[in-house]
Amino acid sequence: MLLVVLWAIPGRALTLSLIRDAEIEHALRELTRPIANAAGVSSGALDVYIINDSSMNAFVLDGQTVMIHSGLILRLDRAEHLQAVIAHELAHITGGHLTRRMANLRGARGVAAMGLLLSTAVAAGGNGQAAAGLAIGTQSSAQRVFFGHTRAEEASADQAGIRYMARAGIDPHAMVEVLDLFRGQEALNVGRQDPYVRTHPLTSERLRAMRGYAAAYADRARDDPQADYWFARARGKLGAFLQNPRYTLRRVDARDDSSVALMQRAVAYHRMPDTEQALAHMRALEAKRPNDPYVQELKGQILLESRRFGAAVQAYARAVSLAPKEPLILAGHGRALLAVNTASSNRQALAALERARSRDPYDPRMLRDLAVAYARADNKGMASVATAERYAITGQMDTAAIHAQRAMGLVPRGAPGWLRAQDVLSAAEKAKRR
């Protein structure tokens, strides 16, 4: 399910959000794998997430996490473009450019550490007022301390990123084409620049050097239909959920019966909402890809949001059988079971959500559902633990600390839940000191 997790500040909602979606994240892993292998990095140790922001930006969050704005992905035309962005950001990680910036985050542990890191992303995305509300500091200082790169670092990342692309057989000219999207922005007023330019200095010398590198490695490029396919799925689904559904229906040829086009139209009709048309397109998509877990997951989402809970549970159960280790699908299954709300379904929901958390503890919506499942099982202590972690991940450290303190009074001292609550308190105290 496409999960949009909002950061909240008292009195206002932020425009930034983190998008969690199993299909899109799988596509990003497929696109990242050859680059990571070329860099000598385990692809399983690298996460790529999407921030729901229309501006064009990408940055490294920590030593294993790359963040990309949805606006940048929707502006890219081919898989190699997105792979160029990932290669460049990975080069910042392998080049050790984060060491001094991450010093201010040392000591944060467990799930709560992600909340501190994501809070800094608010500033990097250009929302200085929101960042101040999160006790991170002003936009300019957050960018300078956490995400700003020197020209020397950019040159190093350019060279390394191009090498990774060449080793993986990815067209190196794609990186030049991505940089061309930002050409001329350094002459703009800072307030009009995309945040990428403010954190990644772009100069004419840099562009000339990049063209030289691309020309030197151009003979190593080869076609990769799988990368093209997964890019089309990720970009198509992202656009279908974020853009006006009528725009999606105009843009996608009604005669196009490809799996990506069917998915886009299903999402668009679901958002209008026209459930019957959405499900008709899902049936056509299911006929084309009967063993695709992400098709079943999307079907489950449409049914769940259309309040057809029993059918949603069946679709999610099928998705789980096809991808039993996918945490976001497990979380969706748990959510559908909670919606049925019987004693049996609530027990099954708790089991599914606990499995989801064990594989991916950084999904706030899953944590919200997990808290509900614990509460229905009359386990108030663990409900408070899950709630504390949810608020910590979304950067609301004061509220997280309240629930963590409550949890520590309800869960046996030294138990895993008690230790998780303690981690949240530690991170909340660190946020106050900053």
From TrEMBL:
Pfam families: Peptidase_M48
InterPro entries reported for this sequence: Mito/Outer_Membr_Metalloprot (IPR051156), Peptidase_M48 (IPR001915), TPR-like_helical_dom_sf (IPR011990), TPR_rpt (IPR019734)
Gene Ontology CC annotation, any one: membrane
Entry note: cofactor: Binds 1 zinc ion per subunit.
Superkingdom of origin: Bacteria
Protein name per the record: Putative Zn-dependent protease
Peptidase M48 domain mapped to chain residues: 27-212
Transport listed as a keyword: no
GO MF: metal ion binding; metalloendopeptidase activity
Protein family (similarity comment): Belongs to the peptidase M48 family.
Cofactor or coenzyme needed: Zn(2+)
Keyword Glycosyltransferase: no
Entry keywords, A to Z: Hydrolase, Metal-binding, Metalloprotease, Protease, TPR repeat, Zinc
Protein's GO biological process: proteolysis involved in protein catabolic process
Repeat (TPR) residue spans along the chain: 293-326
